[in-house]
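Tokens for chain A. Residues wanted.
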């Protein structure tokens, strides 16, 4: 990526996604421009009333790709279409826009690093070089947390259902959704999972976390997305309603892994960090490597 420039434009808080993209660009020999627009437009011209489309179009002139995070679902796709339509009619530059999270919608690069982590940890080829093979034809994933608002679980469910058979060569995928009442996986995501995964995919909502952990390969935990609730009272009503701790994990499969996109609030006790099944810090590091691979594919010089 020598002489290549990446823009990271964030209208919401980020530690891992922004920094891992920036580090990835630097490690590949490129550089980056960053706009922190998280506080009412922050350092961007959004404060002056500029539209998101125009801001991103501007960054597109100065860089080779734009990584965009925005609180509005569907915003990133909308901006990219507008930018590319404008480029088509004016002959302007057309740069890729990477979705780094659009509200409660999607977080596709997180899904890529999550899929890589699942395979690397469990030994599922071709994304794992581990000598220890997975040895099963069915992958069981429990998604515990805010399945309604969590964009990471929306993207991961769909990516798993698209790839378990075609890329990973597995026969079956079981997704178990466990969440506080009212925070269920949206029907449109379930429909996408079924459509992409076909007959080999099962989706269920076990009645207890204990039941969901029986024969489970991956426990994927998310925090309750406080910022997505309409009122503080609605958040308070579900806050702290699940905690993964060592007592719970005593009966869980010994070869299960525990993942979390982070940040965590209180849903995984820190005592779990030293359990060898805790994969979330390795997962976090994988984010940089997977984003390096993505940038190399998109922007790298052969
Ligand atoms: C997630 C996000 O922003 O959606 N974080 C991340 O990118 N690693 C998860 C979250 O904020 O809960």
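Reply:
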């Amino acid at each position: 990526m020598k002489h290549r420039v990446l823009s990271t434009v964030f209208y919401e808080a980020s530690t891992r996604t922004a920094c891992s993209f920036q580090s990835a660009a630097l490690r590949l020999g490129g550089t980056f421009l960053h706009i922190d627009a998280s506080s009412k437009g922050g350092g961007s011209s959004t404060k002056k009333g500029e539209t998101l489309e125009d801001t991103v179009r501007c960054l597109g002139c100065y860089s080779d790709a734009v990584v965009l995070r925005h609180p509005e679902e569907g915003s990133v796709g909308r901006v990219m279409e507008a930018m590319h339509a404008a480029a088509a009619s004016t002959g302007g530059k057309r740069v890729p826009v990477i979705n780094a999270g659009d509200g409660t919608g999607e977080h596709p690069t997180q899904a890529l690093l999550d899929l890589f982590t699942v395979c690397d940890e469990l030994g599922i080829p071709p994304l794992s070089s581990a000598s220890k093979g997975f040895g099963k034809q069915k992958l069981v994933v429990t998604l515990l947390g805010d399945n309604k608002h969590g964009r990471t679980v929306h993207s991961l469910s769909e990516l798993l259902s698209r790839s378990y058979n075609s890329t990973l060569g597995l026969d079956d995928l079981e997704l178990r959704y466990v969440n506080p009442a009212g925070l269920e996986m949206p029907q449109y995501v379930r429909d996408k999972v079924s459509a992409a995964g076909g007959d080999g995919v099962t989706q269920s909502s076990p009645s207890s976390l204990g039941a969901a952990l029986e024969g489970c390969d991956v426990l994927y935990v998310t925090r309750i997305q406080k910022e997505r609730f309409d009122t503080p009272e609605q958040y308070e009503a579900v806050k702290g309603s699940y905690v993964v701790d060592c007592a719970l994990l005593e009966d869980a499969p010994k070869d299960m892994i525990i993942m979390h996109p982070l940040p965590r609030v209180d849903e995984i006790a820190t005592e779990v960090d030293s359990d060898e099944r805790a994969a979330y810090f390795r997962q976090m590091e994988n984010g940089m490597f997977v984003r390096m691979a993505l940038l190399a594919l998109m922007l790298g010089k052969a």
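The pocket of N-carbamoyl-L-aspartate is lined by residues 16-17, 101, 107, 110, 151-152, 222-223, 261-262 (CB under 6 Å). The longest strand covers residues 138-144.
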